[in-house]
Write a structure and sequence with these properties.
The protein is of the alpha/beta class. The chain is built from 22 helices and 15 strands.
Length: about 600
């Protein structure tokens, strides 16, 4: 009996409790509707305070307070009375952004402002079919036989020799017989060159990753590598690199392409007329054919005023400059100094935003921004890559010295994470231009033909660039290995057509503006100096007066200082009024001419 009663009680409780939530929801819905209709009727003032709910049709589906929409509200609104002169206000419920997109947030597209932008087409470039040649079989066999005979003369036996023709040179791979030392082979470099009567010969012993040694011999008729052919390659088209630059073809006819974002900076040097300017045009063409203006900005520095002026029409698409810039291409030395310091400020601003966003580099930051994780109202923004190209670095060093090297060094050391990359070129590869500081921060270097072994070692640390053929023949060093490449050729009319194609399209209202830079920020941005005088300040002043000239190199030699510290001491002497302002490559003027005057000056 007790079990029957208990079972019945449980069934009664279940049957009673099950409909309770639905009843509660229905009662709450009725109460909310009644309150709403009363408020609407009171504001309307035309139909009195009592409104029959049943006159407004069937009840709408129950909705929550947050997701109520105006559509459901309109069904319950009274019709407008003919006597009304003012329409009743529409009741609106604030809807969250996430809900307005069905739970999916809109992805930010940096290209939306220039959504119709079209990248340049390959038809703008030339094929140069009449300048593309192949190495004849007779030439290969003739050189093959000469190499074998020359080595046999010096009792060096070989097992096999294989020729790999390239655009400019042919690599002859040789397998030495057992017991032959590599040193025996390398000592014969000059004899082999004499036997072949070859220009531009280079010995590779051993070839990295193989058991062979190699001899590179210049072809009788070098072949041109058109820029169109390398841009049309599958390797370039399918590249996922951030900043792909295609440079030409190797000695095995393979496309050579680098990612500037990974290098992260590039030094290009060589003698006059050997292909340096063509290489800069090839780098720019690679970026312009691959990148959208929203993802890339260029800072072009051309002290010679002739090489990069063609790109001025890209001002509203790809170029970045100071707010008060007079020309899209930077040609004035003072403006170059200001621009480099402005880039340092931009770099610091970006790194600060990275810190606030909790990211380490530009890719992570832009990914978060595009996914709407970062709020633009808090200073966050989409960041394009910035590539700085300086055509004649030697001219800047000779005229501005440390004013250029200081900010350039900061950008080279810290610019990688912030998406700022440097490409500097010079036709004077000397140690006072390509200093140890520059080389330390530019691990990726391109060497065209130079006049001496010393210049070659200054650029790529080995004496081999003096043996190049010239006219685009170059050595690329990205670390420990050297790669010989024939630079892709793009002529001035091709550059003009490419730039014209981009410039005729709709661009941004103006160029990408860099932060303003004031002269008062000079010490903080360039050197980070705290304003205290160097410990060698007085000794340096006495040395300069004793020698009668204000020379930074003199301080370096006598006190065994690096260029940066010697430059800071010279700046402090200038600020103190002991020496005058810089005069390019000439020594500074001494404003204090004797030791007695210096003693009086220091006692003040």
């Amino acid at each position: 009996m007790l079990g029957t009663v208990g079972t019945g009680a449980v069934l009664f409780f279940v049957l009673t409790a099950f409909p309770l939530p639905f009843v509660y929801r229905w009662i709450r819905k009725r109460r909310e509707r009644k309150i709403y209709l009363q408020e609407t009727a009171g504001e309307n003032g035309s139909a009195g305070s009592s409104v029959d709910v049943k006159e407004h049709g069937p009840e709408p589906e129950p909705v929550s307070e947050v997701t109520r929409t105006p559509v459901a509200v309109k069904e319950a609104m009274p019709e407008k009375s003919p006597d009304n002169t003012k329409q009743a206000p529409v009741f609106e419920v604030e809807i969250k952004e996430e809900e307005s997109t069905s739970g999916e947030m809109l992805f930010y597209d940096p290209k939306q402002d220039l959504s119709r932008y079209k990248k340049p087409v390959l038809d703008l470039l030339e094929d140069y079919r009449n300048r593309i040649t192949e190495v004849s079989q007779d030439e290969l066999e003739r050189n093959n036989q000469k190499i074998v005979e020359c080595l046999r003369t010096f009792d060096i036996q070989i097992e096999k020799i294989v020729a790999t023709p390239g655009p400019t040179v042919t690599l002859y791979k040789i397998v030495l017989s057992p017991g032959i030392r590599i040193s025996q082979f390398t000592r014969l470099e000059d004899d082999i060159m004499l036997s072949l009567a070859a220009r531009g010969m280079r010995v590779i012993a051993p070839i990295p990753g193989t058991n062979m040694v190699g001899i590179e011999v210049a072809n009788d008729k070098p072949s041109l590598v058109p820029m169109k052919s390398v841009l049309d390659s599958t390797k370039f088209k399918e590249s996922k690199d951030d900043l792909p630059i295609v440079l030409g073809k190797s000695i095995s006819n393979e496309i050579v392409m680098l990612d500037l974002a990974r290098l992260p900076h590039l030094l290009v040097a060589g003698a006059t007329g050997q292909g340096k300017s063509v290489a800069l045009n090839a780098i720019l063409a690679s970026l312009l054919y691959k990148m959208h203006p929203a993802y890339l900005k260029l800072v072009l520095v051309d002290p010679k005023r002739v090489e990069l002026n063609l790109y001025s029409k890209l001002e509203n698409h790809f170029l970045a400059q100071l707010p008060d810039a007079e020309s899209p291409i930077i040609i004035d030395t003072k403006k170059v100094v200001y621009t480099l310091n402005s880039l340092c400020i931009e770099m610091d601003n970006r790194l600060e935003l990275y810190n606030r966003a909790g990211v380490r580099n530009i890719k992570e930051y832009n990914k978060k921004f595009q996914e709407r994780v970062l709020n633009p109202l808090k200073g966050h923004r989409f960041m394009p890559f910035i590539v700085v190209i300086i055509d004649e670095f030697a001219d800047l060093i000779m005229t501005a010295g440390r004013d250029v090297e200081g900010p350039l060094t900061r950008l080279a050391q810290m610019g990688r994470a912030s998406g700022i990359h440097l490409v500097i070129a010079t036709q004077r590869p000397t140690t006072n231009i390509i200093t140890g500081t520059i080389k330390a921060n530019f691990p990726a270097r391109i060497a065209f033909r130079v006049a001496s072994k010393i210049d070659s070692r200054t650029i790529i640390d080995v004496s081999e660039a003096n043996q190049l053929v010239g006219r685009g023949d170059m050595l690329i060093s990205t670390g420990s290995d050297l790669l010989r490449v024939q630079c892709a050729f793009i002529d001035t009319p091709e550059v003009e057509r490419m730039v014209e194609y981009i410039g005729d399209q709709q661009g941004y209202p103006g160029p990408f503006e860099l932060p303003e830079y004031s002269e008062s920020e000079r010490q903080e941005v360039i050197s980070g100096s705290s304003g205290q005088r160097d410990d060698l300040f007085e000794e340096a002043a006495r040395l300069l007066i004793q020698n009668g000239e204000g020379s930074t190199s003199l301080l370096q030699r006598r006190f065994h200082l690096g260029y940066n510290r010697a430059g800071r001491i010279m700046d402090q002497l200038e600020e103190a009024g002991i020496v005058g302002p810089p005069k390019g490559s000439s020594p500074r003027e001494l404003l204090v001419s004797s030791q007695e005057m210096l003693d009086d000056f220091l006692r003040k």
